[in-house]
Amino acid sequence: METYIHALTEKNSKREDCGQTVAFQEQEKEYVAENWMQISFAARSENEGFARTAVAAFISYLNPTIEELADIKTAVSEAVTNCIIHGYNLKGGTVWLEACVLDRTLRVVITDEGRGIADIQKALEPLFTTRPDLERSGMGFSFMEAFMDTVEVESTPGKGTRVVMSREIS
Predict the structure, then answer these.
(1) pLDDT tens digits, residue range 106-127?
(2) Average pLDDT for 41-68
């Protein structure tokens, strides 16, 4: 499992990763995704289940195992929950979810325009949380890293956060 950390810049903060003509980059090679989807929804706790179900339905044609589905759904849940609780501080906003498939690799991009992460390295530490008042466990990024092949976190304080995860489906 690889984790990448980047700071968003004004130039790439709105970059799309999955789309009809948008390239899927892997090991400095450029490909066009064979299947893709994009949705946006209100940053509300009740929409976390919608996001995880949407991604599960999207990859169903790949016939993933029950374990693969559970892992991916958990990672998506954690990323979306981070947007809602930490990015927007439970005050609402928009969460963007993109997914695409190249060969048998799923790439999921979850973006918010919330408060951003000041110290990504610290946020990636197990048990670290910015919301101990809500009894958050601080394991969100750890779960994403455990269940996905790659996790990339990009953030700029005051502008938002983007989490890009990939997982090969066996």
Answers:
(1) 999 999 999 999 888 877 677 5
(2) 97
Question: Catalytic site residue 78?
Answer: yes
Residue 148's closest CA among 169, 122, 123?
A: 169
Pick the catalytic residue from 47, 68, 82, 107: 82
How is the chain split into domains, by residue range?
A: 2-168
Whether 135 sits among the annotated catalytic residues: the reply is no
Catalytic position from the list 16, 26, 136, 152 = 136
pTM above 0.90, yes or no: no
- Specify whether 82 is catalytic: yes
Q: Which helix (H) or strand (E) holds 141?
A: helix 140-147
Q: How far apart are CA 8 and CA 111, in angstroms?
A: 11
Catalytic pick among 48, 68, 78, 113: 78
What is the amino acid identity at position 145? E
Q: Report, at the CATH architecture level, how domain 2-168 is classified.
A: 2-Layer Sandwich (3.30)
Q: What mean pLDDT is reported for the chain? A: 82
